Amino acid sequence: MSRILTALQPSGILHIGNYFGAIAPMVSLQDGNENFLFAVDYHAITVPQDPAELRKNLLFAAATYLAAGIDPEKTTLFQQSRVSEHTELAWILNTIAHMGELERMTQYKDKAAGKGEGVSVGLFDYPVLMAADILLYDTEIVPVGEDQKQHLELARDLAERFNNRFGDTFTVPKPSIPKQGARIMGLDDPAKKMSKSASSEKNFISLMDDEKTVLKKIKSAVTDSGTTIEYTKDRPGLANLLTIYSLASEKSTDAIVAEYEGKGYGDFKVGLAEALSDFLSPLQEKINAHLDDPKELIAILDKGAEKAKAIASEKMRIVRDRIGVTL
Ligand code: AQP
């Protein structure tokens, strides 16, 4: 049995990259392990959030995890801000994290680009809070998409640095990155990952997109001037669409390529859009059913926060003692 933990920002409606990169792997690891899954609302506010939207997105996140197959009896499901030990540990880790290592973080560089001096300190410090999220629970395995690998390396470095300085305190976590779906690329730009905060809605397929929207977005997805359907790294737009097709339909890319032999992009895109809608509509039904009962969602999150708090507060007692602030 291992301790597994992952978290997602409630910064908007989740997209298929979040689903295939983090949620589905978490669901597949759920049985036989000790699991934690939470909505990182204090990470989300590192870029401006509308409070009413944030509240809605938190409930949406919980509904999505449950709809995807997270069982609150097997996974502690909660909201980060309800366990204040996350921010407390982040402060302590801040004192051993180095400016240089945070400045090297590509997510920070991407998100800060163009913001000049107006970029928030929170955005800069994001990876330290993420390290606290993970280390607080002695996490062994963190299912994440490829983009979070660098942040996870920082969490490992901070755990080792703390342990070396103050004695063995934290488990050093390992990432679990799926073989397929670890980096779903933007539909409008296959050189960049699919992202909730992308400037164009054509970048992503949201988990709540209806059939018409899915077809429209897939039809406008960037491909290339080729005419055949084949999986090759030289055709990144098509390779990305084939990966999405494979994940949504649970068919191998080889089988899909064989299915479209002699056919062109038109047929392929219609088939992909259908496969995506077939995958999304039952999920959407389940999400909506959970959203119809917000009291139940809140009760699940309350119970999860209580369980998480019990573990986190015990860990912080040890941490405070180790650093010498307990009298
Ligand atoms: N394109 C992606 N492909 C595969 N996995 C992805 N993840 C994100 N994008 C992709 C994984 O989803 C989990 C949650 O991500 P997050 O919400 O914490 O933030 P993020 O990584 O910054 O994701 P977004 O969608 O791009 O959000 P915004 O735009 O709000 O920053 C992580 O495990 C991540 O790897």
Q: Can you list the strand order of the major beta sheet? A: 1-2-3
Calculate the terminal CA-CA distance, rounded to whole Å. Answer: 36 Å
State the helical fraction.
Answer: 40-55%
Report the order of strands and helices.
Answer: EHEHHEHHHHEHEHHHHH
Small molecules held by this entry: adenosine-5'-tetraphosphate
Radius of gyration: 21 Å
Strand content: 5-15%
Structural class: mainly alpha
Give the helix/strand layout.
Blueprint lengths: L2 E6 L7 H14 L4 E6 L1 H4 L6 H18 L6 E5 L5 H10 L4 H5 L2 H7 L8 H15 L5 E3 L5 H18 L7 E3 L34 H9 L16 H14 L3 H7 L5 H27 L2 H30 L4
Parallel strand pairs: 1-2, 2-3, 4-5
Helix pairs in contact: 3-12, 4-7, 4-13, 7-8, 9-12, 10-12
This protein binds adenosine-5'-tetraphosphate.
Keywords:
Rossmann fold; binds adenosine-5'-tetraphosphate; three-stranded parallel β-sheet; 327 residues; mainly alpha; two-stranded parallel sheet; single chain
Structural description of this entry:
There is one protein chain. The chain is mostly helical and 327 residues long. The protein has 2 domains: 3-176 and 293-323, Rossmann fold (3-Layer(aba) Sandwich), CATH 3.40.50.620; 201-288, Tyrosyl-Transfer RNA Synthetase. The chain has helices at residues 16-29, 41-44, 51-68, 85-94, 99-103, 106-112, 121-135, 149-166, 211-219, 236-249, 253-259, 265-291, 294-323, and strands at residues 3-8, 34-39, 75-79, 141-143, 174-176. The strands form 2 sheets. The protein has a 3-stranded parallel sheet. The longest helix has 30 residues, at 294-323. The two termini are 36 Å apart. The relative contact order is 0.15. The model has no long low-confidence stretch (mean pLDDT 95). The structure holds adenosine-5'-tetraphosphate (AQP).
